[in-house]
Amino acid sequence: MRALTIALCMLATPALADVTGTATVIDGDTLKRIFDQVSERFTEYMLSKIPRGRFVIVEEIAALIAWLCTRECSFSTGAVFDISGGRATY
């Protein structure tokens, strides 16, 4: 499967060079229903690991992805956009 993915990318890249870019979005924890199933202490622990001090809002992730699809971002390719509030580590 990996070889097929690489082959498709190699074939598609020249044809799409002027049309598309690639990007990776590293999203952070959002406040979701799963937090209703865990203790408040666990939720506070998760929150304490986020330097921004809050969970990301789903609309913030959507706005970033929408911007990635605009002409203003058309020259950016191969970038990693971190919207984890500073929590992501590499």
Concise description?
The chain is 39% helix and 11% strand. By secondary structure, the protein is of the alpha+beta class.
Number of domains: 1
Percent of residues in helices: 25-40%
Number of strands: 2
Sketch the topology as an H/E string, one letter per element. HEHHE
How would you sum up the global shape?
A: elongated
Sheet with the most strands?
Answer: 2 strands, parallel
Query: Which structural category fits the helices and strands?
Result: alpha+beta
Mean pLDDT: 77
Uncertain runs are none
Compute the number of helices: 3
Query: Terminal Cα separation, in Å?
Result: 26 Å
Strand content: 5-15%
Widest sheet, order of strands: 1-2
Radius of gyration, whole Å: 17 Å
Q: How would you describe the overall organization of this protein?
A:
It is a single chain. With 90 residues, the chain is of the alpha+beta class. The protein has one domain. Helices cover 39% and strands 11% of the residues. The protein has 3 helices and 2 strands, in the order H-E-H-H-E. A two-stranded parallel sheet has the order 1-2. The chain is elongated, with a radius of gyration of 17 Å. It starts with a helix and ends in a 7-residue tail after the last strand.
